[in-house]
Design goal:
It contains three helices and no strands. It is mainly α. The protein has a domain at about 5-10 and about 15-70. The radius of gyration is 27 Å and the shape is elongated. The mean pLDDT is about 85.
Length: about 90
């Protein structure tokens, strides 16, 4: 599908045996329609993925804000390491 986006790509040059089974059953004229349809479906799915990822990032950010100030494992470990390092004359920038 991605190769079909290239302007140099020629569907007629692809051997029928190299095509997916769903496209082999189609007449040559229907193959371009199949590619166009699948490209559209792929674009819609990618848009949905992007939308869901944005919602996920928003949710995670909200959850992280509610956790700030509590003693989670990572904050306790970081605090302990910093305290031990400072006791041994290490400095952090």
């Amino acid at each position: 599908m991605d190769a079909a986006k290239d302007k140099k790509f020629k569907l007629d040059a692809v051997k029928e045996t190299d095509l997916p089974a769903a496209m082999q059953a189609l007449p040559p004229a229907g193959r371009q329609e199949f590619i166009d349809k699948k490209s559209q479906e792929r674009a819609e799915l990618q848009a949905k993925i992007n939308e869901l990822n944005a919602a996920r990032e928003k949710f995670v950010a909200a959850q992280m804000k509610s956790v700030i100030g509590t003693n989670t494992l990572d904050t306790v470990v970081i605090t302990t390491v910093r305290e031990q390092a400072q006791a041994r004359a290490f400095t952090f920038e």
